[in-house]
Amino acid sequence: MVPGSQLLEAVRMLVLDVGIDVSETDANGQTAVHGAANLSADDIIL
Question: Are 44 and 4 spatial neighbours (Cβ–Cβ below 8 Å)?
Answer without folding.
Answer: yes
